[in-house]
Write a structure and sequence with these properties.
The protein is of the alpha/beta class. It contains ten helices and nine strands.
Length: 251
């Protein structure tokens, strides 16, 4: 599926993060950041400290990862996203260096960034190959690219088929397995040094919303009543082994 910038911008508005894709993204900040903390601690084991001083995040959203990276790593952080409301929150509330733009149209990149992060983003990109090729030109030798995305070759994805939860265009337009993500990165000058499947904490309220209320033309009265009764603090830690975290080094 090939969609233009105008069509993409129409998808990722404030409604996407409240009511469309997510029930309430900002409300779930603590839950989302608890997953990011685990990823940050894992990245510290693989990426040397001197390569965590200048970070670029593509698809930074509301800046929840950037806030943690800045504070945990004491790094210079820059984030970009196409959602106006998300960038306003990241820059004004979290005080991050966050800019609204398309990375492919970015001519003045942050100086000498050593690591680029794309968490749950690459499946949304109309042209992931062009993005990775551009990153290959702009990340210095020995720098790192961190990507997380669904694994369409996983056991769960294969048994669920078209009903796999990660298949939902128009927001998800590209799907990868271990072999294809490795090929994309290696073709563009990266060497995959680690692939893992992280445990993810999820809000039970968000899970219920996604399963029974999201994209329903008619809201089922009973489901809505049950949803209202679920405490926001209820969490579920689960590893379905269908979400990959890939760390690659620029060769």
């Amino acid at each position: 599926m090939d969609i233009g910038n105008e069509e993409v911008a129409k998808i990722y508005t404030a409604d996407y993060f409240k009511g469309e894709e997510y029930e309430d993204y900002i409300r779930d900040k603590k839950i989302i950041q608890s997953n990011f903390i685990s990823r940050i601690k894992y990245l510290e084991k693989v990426i040397p400290e001197n390569k965590r001083k200048n970070i670029l995040e593509i698809g930074c959203g509301y800046g929840f990862f950037g806030e943690l990276a800045r504070d945990y790593w004491n790094c210079k952080y820059s984030g970009i996203d196409i959602c106006r409301e998300a960038i306003e929150y990241a820059s004004t509330v979290l005080k991050l260096n966050a800019m609204r733009m398309d990375y492919l149209e970015m001519s003045n990149r942050p100086d000498e960034f050593e690591t680029c992060v794309m968490l749950d983003v690459i499946e949304h990109l109309p042209h992931p190959d062009r993005v990775v090729a551009k990153l290959s030109d702009e990340i210095g030798k020995g720098g790192y690219l961190v990507v997380s995305t669904g694994d369409i070759g996983s056991f769960l994805a294969r048994i669920r088929g078209r009903k796999w939860r990660m298949i939902h265009p128009p927001s998800h337009v590209h799907y990868f397995n271990r072999m294809t993500i490795n090929k994309l990165l290696c073709t563009n000058g990266f060497e995959v040094v680690d692939i893992s499947y992280p445990v993810i904490k999820r809000s039970i309220k968000q899970i219920f919303f996604s399963l029974f209320l999201l994209n329903r033309s008619t809201k089922i009265h009973l489901a809505h009543k049950i949803y209202q009764l679920i405490p926001e603090k209820w969490l579920l830690s689960l590893n379905t082994f269908d979400i990959m975290l890939i760390i690659a080094r620029r060769t």
